[in-house]
Amino acid sequence: MDITNITNFVVRNDTINAFVSAINKVSVPTAEEEKDLFVKYEGYVEEERLYEEILSSYKHDEKVDMYKERLQMAKDKQIEVRNEILLRNMRFVYAVAKRYSTDDLLPDLINTGIVGMMEAFEKYDWREGNRFTTLAIWYIRRAINAYLNKENLVVRPKNGARIIPKVKKIENDFFLKNGRKPFASEVMEILEKDFGIVVDSEIDIYGTRVDKIEQHLDGDEDNTLDKSSVFNEKTSVSNDFDMQSDNDSLKYMLGESLKVLTDRERTIICMAYGYDGYNREYKDKEIGDAIGLTSERVRQLRHGALKKMRSAYLAAEER
C-alpha cells in the first residue's frame, strides 16, 4: 500500500473496514527496526545534501547528469523510507482517532491524525532513545482536538469554561509530582479542596454532562450523547496497544521535564517523589542531610525545580 497520497485514501465514501484491513497487513516496527529505518532515512537526507552541494559548484558538464540522477534517487529513497515508517505506525493513528470519534467522524479524524503524525515525523530524533509514537501521540491528539474544536464537535459542560482549565492544571501538576495521570476521583477532590468547585459526577470534569445516553445536547434533537465524540472517547475501552502508547508518552514527557534540571535539582526531585531508583519519598531534611544542604534550601530548590519542569512539560506538549 503506497501512502504518498494517504490522506486521500480514507475519504467519506470509503469503508473503515477496507482501511483497517490494509493497515493490518503490515507489522508495527520493533524498536530496533524503527531505529534502523530512521538511520536509513537520515542517510538519504545526507546524500541529498551532498549531491546538491556538488551540483551547486560543479563545473564539468560530463558528470552533471550522473549527479542529478543520484540526487533524485536519494529523494525517492527518502520518500520510500518515510512512507514505510508512517504506514507501519498507522494502526496507532487509527487507535487514537477511534477514541475520539463516532463512526461518521472516524474517516475525517484518521486523515487529521495522519497529518499530525507527519508533523511528528519531522520533529522526531531517534538519538533521544524514545519510540516514535511517544512523540507522535501529542501531535496526533493536538491535530484531532484542533479539528474537533474548529468544527464545534466537542461537547462542553455548562460550567466548562470554569472547570476545564483548572482540570488541565491539576492533571499537569499531579503528573509532574507523581509520574502518572490522576484518577477522576483525585481530580474531583483537588477541585473541591483547592478551588472550592464541587462537580456532580466524574464525567463532568471531562467535557460532557448527561443523564441518559439518548439525552439531547444543546437543544438539538439530532445531537444525542451516543453521537458525541467526547462520550465515545471517555467511555471507550483502551486496548493494550493504546494503553502502552499512553504510558510511553507519559514517560517521554516526564523525561523531557527532567532534562531542564541541574544534576542537584534532579536528585532533589527524584528523592522527594520516589522516582528513578528511589523507592520512597524523602523529606526535605533527609535530602539535605544526603547532599549537604539545609532543609530550607532543599525546599527552595524543590519548588524552583517544579516550576521549571511545569514550563518544560507545557512547552513539550505544545510542540
What does this structure look like?
Among the domains are: 160-239, no CATH class; 259-318, Winged helix-like DNA-binding domain superfamily/Winged helix DNA-binding domain (Arc Repressor Mutant, subunit A), CATH 1.10.10.10. The chain is globular, with a radius of gyration of 24 Å. Helix 2 (31-57) packs antiparallel against helix 3 and helix 7 packs across helix 8 (184-195). Mean pLDDT is 76; it is low at 4-13, 207-219 and 230-240. Strand 1 and strand 2 form a beta hairpin. The protein has 319 residues and is mainly alpha-helical. Helices cover 65% and strands 2% of the residues. The protein contains 13 helices and 2 strands. The longest helix has 27 residues, at 31-57. The chain starts with 15 loop residues before the first helix and ends with a helix. A two-stranded antiparallel ribbon has the order 1-2.
Distance between the termini: 30 Å
Oligomer: single chain
Mean pLDDT, nearest integer? Answer: 76
Major sheet: arrangement of strands: 1-2
Helix % is 55-70%
Outline the secondary-structure elements.
Elements: H1 16-23, H2 31-57, H3 64-88, H4 90-100, H5 106-123, H6 132-150, H7 160-178, H8 184-195, E1 216-217, E2 220-224, H9 229-235, H10 240-258, H11 263-272, H12 284-291, H13 295-318
